Automatic annotation (TrEMBL):
It comes from the Bacteria. It comes from Microbacterium psychrotolerans. Gene3D superfamilies: 1.10.1740.10, Winged helix-like DNA-binding domain superfamily/Winged helix DNA-binding domain (1.10.10.10). The keyword DNA-binding applies. Residues 23-91 form the RNA polymerase sigma-70 region domain. This is RNA polymerase sigma factor. The keyword Oxidoreductase does not apply. Keywords: DNA-binding, Sigma factor, Transcription, Transcription regulation. NCBIfam families: sigma70-ECF (TIGR02937). Residues 116-166 form the RNA polymerase sigma factor 70 region 4 type domain. CDD domains: Sigma70_r4. Belongs to the sigma-70 factor family. ECF subfamily.
Length: 178
């Protein structure tokens, strides 16, 4: 019989690396899909998932489980890693743009940043985390609050603010289409 997340987690807490590998096998695909939505580069999405599991192992004593599973914690950590990787990439591209090296006229341009996911990326990190956990991943407000370590009311207010901002951005995008 296959172990559930709670029993695997008990083994991870005891230092069992094989149990961590089983958790990785179980949740890697979902976390990769999540990271891929937030990042433009496939390799960065893989890195975000890898860093997330490394952090899970490193911080295993303080990880907050929801219903016996570390998945919500991992989703939030992978989101943070994705933001850090995206920010790092932006800084790197800015640095390259300022270097006096000869410009390559045939270099490809960046991805189109005009859709719903682009609007989601422009939300503040606190609101983005709430949207990811509640809307994209379908966790209830209580589970998101527990994962983020904030009150349920704060989850609701951040979600309302995020939805209002996304509505405004989508209205402006639709206005540009007309």
């Amino acid at each position: 019989m296959e172990d559930d997340d709670a029993s695997l987690w008990e083994r991870v807490l005891a230092g069992d690396e094989a149990a961590l590998a089983l958790l990785f096998d179980r949740h890697e695909a979902r976390l990769f899909r999540h990271a891929r939505r937030l990042l433009t580069a496939r390799e960065d999405a893989k890195d975000a998932v890898t860093i997330g599991f490394f952090e899970l192992w490193r911080k295993r004593e303080s990880v907050r489980l929801v219903d016996g599973s570390p998945l919500p914690w991992l989703l939030n950590t992978v989101s943070n890693c994705a933001r850090n990787l995206e920010r790092s990439g932006r800084r790197y591209r800015t640095l390259l743009a300022r270097t006096p090296a000869a410009a390559n006229p045939g270099a490809p341009e960046g991805p189109d940043e005009t859709g719903v996911l682009a609007a989601l990326k422009r939300l503040p990190a606190r609101e983005q985390s709430v949207v990811v956990l509640t809307v994209l991943e379908g966790y209830p407000d209580r589970a998101a609050a527990e994962t983020l370590g904030i009150p349920v009311g704060t989850v609701k207010s951040r979600l309302a603010r995020a939805k209002a901002r996304l509505r405004e951005e989508m209205a402006s995008i639709e206005g540009a289409w007309a």
